[in-house]
């Protein structure tokens, strides 16, 4: 059982269900509340513990930066999500458009207790920023499909661009201006940002955390390795397809999505999370698992 302590809201006190506590804080300006595993901790919070303001639906939530060492960030939440996107823009000059043949991919990892779910996808001719947005969006869509949007969620990413759009009010500003930038110019990846905005409205409790990419954070290294595995398996783009010179005008060329192989984990009531792998053949699945084991990021006992 969890205890939800409301320090500032329509009604203060300790509640044993989120549905009841949410009514006391939803839409209340400056609401202060937090969940605890024990009633004693909840009472301590109400009676003078250090003030903590939980995230609200405004989506302007604080994030923590990782240290410069090789330690992982310590995100808070019942569900922890890692997202990452990347591209291989070989031969492009700085500031130039990606080529239609450039590979790009996204990946996310969802952890809850000992259970894990990860997924990845790729496109040709897409920018790094597009893949970062895709990773976050696909993670949100997965959580909604599992009915987990009301859980306490911590999201860890190395994309300052995506974090700033959410936390600094850029997303709300784009919406007010009809999805244009402040100078009136066209917003790149408009449809993706609209989808992110629509999905975020269903997530009342998300905390965001920034981590330095390729700096030893285990979850970040995992999704980075996964998206690179996806790009390694993409092959070559279809020469008959129209080139995606500027993804914002024409859209990148997607690769066919393989049918995932499902592996049933130990049931977790009431909302089990299943773990899938993206490759389509047993050989590809084994290759990915072997690579992840070498990095120490795959535990055979998780299934």
UniProtKB/TrEMBL annotation:
Magnesium as UniProt keyword: yes
Q: Which parts of the sequence belong to the RNase H type-1 domain? A: 75-232
Which class of enzymes does this protein belong to?
Answer: hydrolase
Question: Looking at the record, which segments are called Disordered?
Answer: 50-72, 232-303
The molecular function GO annotations come to: metal ion binding; nucleic acid binding; RNA-DNA hybrid ribonuclease activity
What EC number(s) would the UniProt record show? 3.1.26.4
Compositionally biased region (Polar residues): 278-293
Q: Name one GO biological process term.
A: DNA replication, removal of RNA primer
The biased composition feature labelled Basic residues covers 57-68
Listed under catalytic activity are:
Endonucleolytic cleavage to 5'-phosphomonoester
Q: Which InterPro entries match?
A: Ribosomal_bL9/RNase_H1_N, RNase_H, RNase_H1_N, RNase_H1_N_sf, RNaseH-like_sf, RNaseH_domain, RNaseH_sf, RNaseHI
Specify one Pfam family.
RNase_H
Its family?
Answer: Belongs to the RNase H family.
What is the stated purpose of this protein?
Endonuclease that specifically degrades the RNA of RNA-DNA hybrids.
Outline the subunit composition.
Answer: Monomer.
Identification of the protein by name: Ribonuclease H
Q: Which organism is it from?
A: Lentilactobacillus buchneri subsp. silagei CD034
- The gene is rnhA
